[in-house]
Amino acid sequence: MISKYNFCPETHPRIELHFLEHFSTSKAKNAKPPKKEYLRCKLIRGHKRAIRQLTKGIIPTATLHKFDIKNSKALSIWEKMKKIYDDNIQFFVHLSKTEAGPKTDGKARRQVISESIPKSFNNNFCSEYFQPECVRESFYYYVLLIYAKFDAGLLIEKFQFFCCKDDDHSVKCIDKWMMLKDYITIFMFTELNLTPYKENTELISLPDYKKFIILEDVFVDKKCNKSNTDETLMND
């Protein structure tokens, strides 16, 4: 499915992608696609927040990574992230601080604002953030947590941008969200000259393509029936 967007890890390991052009910041006709730095910022801030919640034993209910505690797969992912955290507590405690970020973050808590602090979530900052393998491992499961319930409407709510301008989503929408997942687990790291963390795990959630194929068949049938009805009325 992803190949239709020329998005193949094997053939384009370091390609600068325009993947966000498939999304928009609103349903308006002239809506612009979200910026890549916005995505990086949202994900890294969310990952830090998740680590702080793990520290306090809080189950997230209103964030990018919120999940239903009744979702056993999501809960298992959360427990996996907790295990990674427990194995690297001192490291993650520092990493998760709001002031351990670009100048835009944690201003009130900074003792000194150094000129060496990155001004934004640029390549240098992101490369440094994801340098340790334990962070890439934790982030990999963080993305799995975001996608624990593969629902286009929920993903729109979480990321705050749109895959289409319709209320009823299609297989193409699912392909876009799959493409985005591949970007933030693979290409975001190869762009930073880092090795992506990847693990074959039963905790990976996949969309129900069958459901969308059935919905599209119903839509086509309705469209055909409407056309036949309109043609009959014209002939009458």
TrEMBL record:
Organism: Stentor coeruleus
Domain of life, source organism: Eukaryota
Protein name: Uncharacterized protein
